[in-house]
Design brief:
single chain; 267 residues; globular; four-stranded antiparallel sheet
Length: 267
């Protein structure tokens, strides 16, 4: 089943002033189209300024594009009723790069994870407590961690809490916007492993936005690459990315290739 369809999306940030003149800014996104099927993880790669995070905001309903459509579960997210948009928000969750700014420092881990449950479910106090504790265990933390505050966790642990919050409502799609880039290599690998496990056990679909081709290759099924607001490569099979002859893709690949050919991805 098709979970997400982006159709010919174009977006810019209006006009800019320069030396007393006003001129249109160049588009941040130019005719971008992609699809994500149920249970599929698509890695969206690109250097800084390529437009990938803006596309993520458009998909999440945070930036309405000038042209094109975003269909989530067959519904246009910018033209549905208030009730339709509310239900779509339930089924599409997000994990951001900065795990600290994504949470309220005055809330406990239990309150953070329970926030979407408060908004969409009618659980008793005990039911919510059990649900939160199960979610903590699912992401590799302890049930008693629900009473801790954000400053009492490491960055990797706090990102696990953000992931627990994202899966609390059993969404159909999670947008992960540079969700491991602020972590050290050890925590990155732990989070990537966790994302893989959750994808398999819960049947999740991901849009994994990153500049790191190695991270994308680790967790994703397919890979797409953006440059200057355009989608320049799209591979349903992630191994296909290594056959691309586009210079921007070649630069991404070169950034992770070790010196010895026998050590290069894919194995």
């Amino acid at each position: 089943m098709r979970v997400l369809q982006v159709k010919e999306v174009t977006h810019s940030y209006g006009r800019r002033k320069w030396l007393g003149r006003s001129e249109l800014r160049p588009p941040v996104l130019s005719g971008v189209s992609l699809t994500i099927e149920s249970g599929f993880c698509l890695g969206l790669l690109g250097t800084s300024g390529a437009g990938k995070s803006t596309l993520g905001k458009v998909i999440l309903g945070l930036e309405k594009p000038q042209k094109g459509q975003v269909l989530f579960q067959g519904q246009d997210i910018y033209h549905g009723s208030t009730q339709v948009r509310r239900e779509l928000r339930r089924d599409m969750q997000v994990v951001f790069q900065d795990c600290y700014s994504a949470v309220n420092p005055r809330m406990t881990a239990g309150q953070i994870i329970g926030e979407p449950l408060d908004n969409y479910e009618r659980l008793s106090v005990q039911e919510q407590k059990r649900t939160v504790e199960n979610l903590l265990e699912r992401v590799g933390l302890r049930p008693e961690d629900r009473n801790k505050f954000p400053h009492q966790f490491s960055g990797g642990q706090l990102q696990r809490i953000n992931i627990a919050r994202a899966i609390a409502l059993k969404p159909k799609l999670i947008v992960l916007d540079e969700s491991v880039s602020s972590l050290d290599m050890v925590h990155q690998m732990h989070i990537l492993s966790l994302l893989g496990e959750l994808k398999s056990s819960l049947g999740l679909s991901y849009l994994f936005i990153t500049h790191d081709i190695r991270a994308a290759y680790t967790v994703c099924d397919g890979i797409a690459v953006m440059e200057q607001g355009e989608l320049i490569e799209y591979c349903d099979d992630k191994d296909g990315i290594f056959e691309s002859i586009h210079p921007a893709v070649q630069r991404l690949i070169a950034s992770i290739l070790p010196e010895h050919p026998a050590d290069r991805l894919p194995s």
